[in-house]
Amino acid sequence: MGALRRWLGRTAMEVAAVGGIAWVQLRRRRYRRRGRSLTSEERSSLATFFDEALLDSVRVCEVPRIEPGLPVWVIRALRLPASVDISFASGMAFVDAVVISDAARRRENPAAILFHELVHCAQFRELGVYRFLRRYLVGWAAAGFNYFAIPLEEQAYELQDRFEAGESFDVRQELRRFDAA
Ligand SMILES: [Zn+2]
């Protein structure tokens, strides 16, 4: 029974991760279609932090409210608590498509929100979709579903704080430094 249970658990995780890739790609296509390129002001304020290829590829989509972060079947497959909901988020990144909530843009510093989501785009580039998803989900579960304690979020918030403090740095180098630590 133990072996069967382990096999079923592993299968559920695989199905969720593979399904997660399809879900990310679906959102990515949707938000890229509706999104816009970065403005020249955004580009110049972000040029020291991100490489040109990333700034060229990214599309930004502004929406009234962020949709729930995970489809219900993924929450069930991973046996996540039903309370898991990150629709309060200011934005979300899907590979090279970023969605940002209008309410958050009024409430917070829009440049900082955009910066934070671009850090996630850079993480997607470094890790690939599958490894990003796996790390995000595993980190979330390990943190007791505390969104702010997910390692990939801790990295994004730390770099966002430094961005808001007026520091200059290369995001990709910083991400590699986190991984080496
Ligand atoms: Zn984030």
Write the layout of secondary structure elements.
Elements: H1 2-34, H2 40-46, H3 52-57, E1 59-63, H4 72-77, E2 91-94, E3 97-101, H5 102-107, H6 110-127, H7 129-142, H8 151-164, H9 171-180
Parallel strand pairs: 1-3
Antiparallel strand pairs: 2-3
Helix pairs in contact: 1-7, 6-7, 6-8
Residues 116, 120, 153, 156 line the site of zinc ion.
Features:
mainly alpha; globular; 3 strands; 181 residues; binds zinc ion; 3-stranded mixed beta sheet
Helices and strands, in order, run as: HHHEHEEHHHHH
Instruction: Characterize the quaternary organization of these chains.
Output: single chain
- What is the arithmetic mean of pLDDT? 86
Number of E-type strands? 3
Helix content: 55-70%
Can you tell me the overall shape?
A: globular
Task: Please work out how many helical segments DSSP would assign.
Answer: 9
Q: For the largest sheet, list the strands in their spatial order.
A: 1-3-2
How much strand content do the residues show?
A: 5-15%
How far do the termini sit from each other? 39 Å
Question: How would you classify the helix and strand content by structural class?
Answer: mainly alpha
- Poorly predicted runs of 5 or more residues: none
Radius of gyration, in angstroms, nearest whole number: 17 Å
Indicate how many domains the architecture comprises: 1
User: Sheet bearing the most strands, described?
Assistant: 3 strands, mixed
Bound molecule types: zinc ion
